[in-house]
């Protein structure tokens, strides 16, 4: 999975969670709002119930009071006092706010009525078919809702029987009609949906006039017959109210309501309160929307912060990469500079070496010229004097002169011989040599000179023979060079002049040391003592080839020659060569035989 598709999946998952939580949040808010609406509906229906009961019951005792009036009894018993009864009923009606108060005889015919003077007068009308009349005549208390057959206006009828004065016999009935228009007008003005259904499930009072005389359920045939017998709803046709009901929820005229109802058992009615569900739905959608917006903003904020962090991190990485690139470039530049410096150094070294070579060549030329010129000019002088001596016949003197010339040429030959030794690499055969012997030979050679210069020679030779593989003449040449230098170094020294020669074994090596108590070698000279033609001696006394030749002889034999100053003063030269093992020695001897 690429990081990009991973990100989009994450985004989709996040968006899914956001939508789901908004949806659930909306449902929760809906349930809460619904709970509140139910509580409010219960409160409201209680209020409506009390207003309804109050409106209906406020005159329930009026028929009893009227029935006990003597004028009413007299009229029903002997037909006397009609005018007085009309006036009485009218005055009570006026005072009580009833719609009509009327008196019926045992047949149900109205004999007196408060509206006796109005065109809608009940007088003469027979209401024997009404249940309230029948119940009252049977001695009970009649209550009944009906649409007036005379007026066509709905009302609530309450009736009581009238007994003959002084007797228990029922002679008629007093009925009171209440009209509840004002109550319904109040309900309408309240803007709420409330209605009352009777025992037939027909709406008898309603805040909405369109719903009046509609039934909530189809009327059974028996009920229809009863209704037509009682003329409960007058001439009004009872149609079904088109409503979808599911539990407590009802849809009426395309509006959704929460239906709450309460029984009114003493009337056989039900009071219905319909609470509009729209605010609940609005609450749900607003909550969902708010949650969606909040979650969306949170998601946006989260993504924004994450993007900013990522950008910061990538900026930092880029800055670090730039810094590393910069460092690399600087390093490369430094390496380049160093490389150039090294190249320059090498060039300078090469130049120095070249210059050194030239200088050495110059020194060598001067030294050779000097060394060779001296005998040559002497030869020239001797040759001239030899000629003179021969011209004068002094032959024996001439022979002496010739001998001197020969000696001088010997000296020249020695110089050139030295140079040859230095120049060529020896291909001499190496054979076992005894170092103590070589030391002895060198000492013998120097014995006279040492004595003349009053130099003490101190020999410290380790017991037993020490053999090395080499060339005895060459080794002796080295020893002679070292001893000559030591002698030169101590020659001018006042007091005791001493040269020490030590020979010892050091592991597998043989070490030979030549030490003097002369002035030693200063630092500058120490660096150059093995350079060819380096000499501190006056011209004619030193050529500067002794140590250079000795060094190359020792190297050729696989050894080492080193110079240093001894701790108690004077120069100390040490020569280290590999000792021959007994096996090597035996092998060499057998080969020689
Ligand atoms: P030369 O003897 O002709 O000068 P060498 O190569 O033998 O040439 O010696 C080089 C130089 O080393 C000498 O000129 C001297 O300055 C220094 N040197 C060698 N041996 C000694 C020593 N034993 N004490 C002090 N200086 C020495």
Class inferred from helices and paired strands? alpha+beta
Number of strands: 20
CATH class of the largest domain: Alpha Beta
Classify the beta-strand content into a percent band: 15-25%
Radius of gyration: 76 Å
Number of domains: 3
Write down the overall mean pLDDT: 87
CATH topology heading of the largest domain:
Heat Shock Protein 90
Uncertain regions: pLDDT < 50 for 5+ in a row? none
Q: How would you summarize what this structure contains?
A:
By secondary structure, the chain is of the alpha+beta class. The protein has three domains: 129 residues, PAS domain (Beta-Lactamase); 115 residues, PAS domain (Beta-Lactamase, 2-Layer Sandwich); 176 residues, 2-Layer Sandwich (Heat Shock Protein 90), CATH 3.30.565.
